[in-house]
Amino acid sequence: MRVVVVGAGLGGVAAAVGLHRLGHEVTLFERGAELREAGTGIVVMPNGIRALEALGLADGIRGHVMHGTHGGLRDWRGRPLLVTDLVQAQQEVETPAMVDRADLHRALRAPLPASVVRTATPVERLEPDPTGVTVISDGNPIARADAVIAADGIGSRLRDQLFPGHPGLRRTGRLDLRGMLARPAGLVTDLLVSQLVDRRSGAMFGLFPVGEDRLYWFTDSALRGTPPGADEARRQMLSLMADWHPLVPALIEATPPADIYVDPITRLAEPLPSFAAGRIALLGDAAHAMSPDLGQGASQAFEDAAALTRHLTGAEPADVAQRLLRYDAERRPRANRMMRAAYRQSRLTSQTGVAAWVRDALLRAVPSRLATRQLAALWNA
Ligand SMILES: Cc1cc2nc3c(=O)[nH]c(=O)nc-3n(C[C@H](O)[C@H](O)[C@H](O)COP(=O)(O)OP(=O)(O)OC[C@H]3O[C@@H](n4cnc5c(N)ncnc54)[C@H](O)[C@@H]3O)c2cc1C
Fold first, then answer.
1. Does 197 lie in the same domain as 155?
2. In this structure, are 212 and 310 located in the same domain?
3. Whether residues 193 and 156 fall in one domain
4. CA 342/CA 370 separation, integer angstroms
């Protein structure tokens, strides 16, 4: 069966590998000039690791599973609010892996033969008819497929084409800065695997180890008006966090400006009515772009890729639409639940004033065992 995958991000590449290994004739179209993933670190949650395992793609990630003993939320000075026990989490459901985005993408795409990949090929639209789908780029037909997987990311134009009445993306009113740097020699800190929240400003800072020798940090704060450039965003963040735990401004200062990424956070304004339309399925951010607060975007994309691979095992051109409906029925409720939960988490961590004071008091009262169990429940598919 001929399958076209549009978009070679983490989700598209994982799906292309799964479908190629099934023996389908896969073509992966990517608008970029080369296959690559830019950016910093990424947390792959245990459910994402399990999905990669099902795709036979987890080898590269297993060595990066986090072995810290505690994580959770802290206040801006680093004092614990909600402690999660990673040892207990590991016993119940494993723990997340923290990896370099570029390394992860490289490991995922390694099994794809070069003949499958067509870079510098932006897909403009899809023209479905009763016997297949014609893929159009630059006004010309470039492929004919029995099934198309639209994995063209958060700004998906294929999503717009399939669901023209959908309101599309919405800004959350938050700005994200993130960076990666060499781990300072001899650094020992209990802030690792933690997120610090500040009830005065609603800002947040997270810190994770990447392997033995690097650190990944991210911040999230209110965005008013036009997003600032990288230098200005860094300056504003340093000023906002000047009286935080001293490690926070020190790490932001120590990160080379060129290694800092700035993004206004957007998400789908509303869940999509379906992840499938005839012979076309949506996957990853194209289907369920969510705010990054639960670190689930890529893990949900991997769950999509594993589910699609399962549903298209032994598929024939005649039964594709039926199988994609089953993919939609399996994936949409869970991914949409995650999207809503991520937004709730965003609102919780960005609270200010009395609501945030109450939040902090309540968080301090939650027993670590219960907090860990709730986290494990989220990671269980
Ligand atoms: C600040 C931030 C932090 C995050 N942290 C985490 C985290 O810790 N853990 C986690 O799981 N998730 C995280 N996420 C989310 C995660 O990065 C995404 O969910 C994931 O990368 C989505 O993968 P994707 O393959 O669906 O889309 P993308 O990675 O966006 O890939 C889409 C690809 O399609 C290509 N493309 C687009 N249009 C076309 C076209 N018309 N024709 C051909 N090619 C096209 C693009 O060039 C791109 O290569 C974070 C997101 C943000 C913004």
1. no
2. no
3. no
4. 19
How does pLDDT run across 275-302, given as a tens digit for each residue?
A: 999 999 999 999 999 999 999 999 999 9
User: Tell me: the pLDDT tens digits for 229-267?
Assistant: 888 899 999 999 999 999 999 999 999 888 899 999 999
**Is the minimum distance from the CB of 302 to ligand 1 under 6 angstroms?**
no
Q: How many domains does the chain have?
A: 2
Pairwise CA distance, residues 20 & 18, whole Å: 6
Output the average pLDDT for the chain.
92
Tell me the HSE value of 247 on the side-chain side, using a 13 A CA sphere. 21
Same domain, 343 and 296: yes
CA atoms within 13 A on the CB side of 356: 19
- Which residues lie closer than 8 Å to 309 by C-beta, 6 or more apart? 15, 18, 19, 21, 22, 54, 55
CA of 69 to the centre of ligand 1 (A): 30
Q: Residue 68 — pLDDT band, cuts 50, 70, 90?
A: low
Domain containing residue 183: CATH number: 3.30.9.30
Instruction: Say if residues 207 and 249 touch (Cβ distance below 8 Å).
Output: no
- Ligand 1 pocket check: which of 4, 37, 42 to mutate, most ligand atoms within 8 Å of Cβ? 42
The protein residue with its alpha carbon nearest to ligand 1, atom 2, reads 292
Atom of ligand 1 nearest to the CA of 123: 42
CA distances from 362 to 84, 128, 162, 176, 356 (A): 15, 53, 44, 26, 10
pTM: 0.95
